[in-house]
Design a protein that fits this description.
mainly alpha
Length: about 200
């Protein structure tokens, strides 16, 4: 005699089953707009996919989260031979750090330093930024003073820039980033240097 299982029971059991990688991959591409390669890589590991989704749930930027999970996070996990179950960075902490970038509190470059400290210590990203003095410099007057010092200290690069050598501007930008220890707002640095170079003619 055949056994009949109520539809509701079947649906309940189906919901309890873990989502298959192919289903997740399709959802990442169709719903969140991830490139197929990224979606396949993330969905190939259940732990990575779970972590990724938990982060996206509190920071709704799927592509940005994907880049960090596949990039810095995967690199450190492989380098230190650590499993996701041992990871000290919780999804909400990663989301918090990404929000600091959005707010202009830290730069993308500094974020990598903060992230690495979070990885090894499990500390809160805001606490790390405060302790290490990593807040991004966006104050115009401070950046203008810095730009003037850099221009004065590098007359040859200034002369090269004025003859049309764009590489010279990149060098000067690099000098400002070096002096600020990576804390200067990169977009502001570019604009302010150009303004100061125009004034100095």
């Amino acid at each position: 005699m055949p056994v009949t299982v109520p539809r509701e029971r079947v649906e309940t059991l189906a919901k309890r089953l873990p989502e298959m990688p192919d289903t997740r991959r399709w959802r990442y591409v169709e719903k969140w707009g991830l490139p197929e390669y990224d979606a396949e890589l993330i969905s190939s590991s259940r732990e990575m996919a779970d972590y990724y989704e938990a982060t996206v749930a509190v920071y709704n930027q799927p592509k940005v989260v994907g880049n960090w999970v596949m990039g810095e996070l995967a690199r450190l996990l492989n380098q230190e031979h650590i499993e996701f179950s041992e990871l000290k960075i919780k999804p909400d902490a990663l989301a918090k750090m990404l929000s600091l970038i959005d707010a202009g509190t830290i730069s993308g470059k500094i974020a990598k330093t903060v992230f690495e400290e979070m990885f090894f210590s499990g500390k809160d990203p805001q606490a790390i930024v405060a302790e290490k003095g990593l807040v991004q410099i966006s104050d115009t007057s401070e950046l203008e003073d810095m730009a003037r010092r850099i221009i004065e200290a590098n007359p040859q690069s200034v002369a090269d820039y004025r003859t049309g050598k764009e590489q010279a501007l990149k060098f000067l930008i690099g000098q400002m980033m070096k002096e600020s220890k990576g804390r200067a707002n990169p977009t502001s640095v570019n604009d302010i240097l150009k303004q100061q170079l125009a004034k100095e003619r």
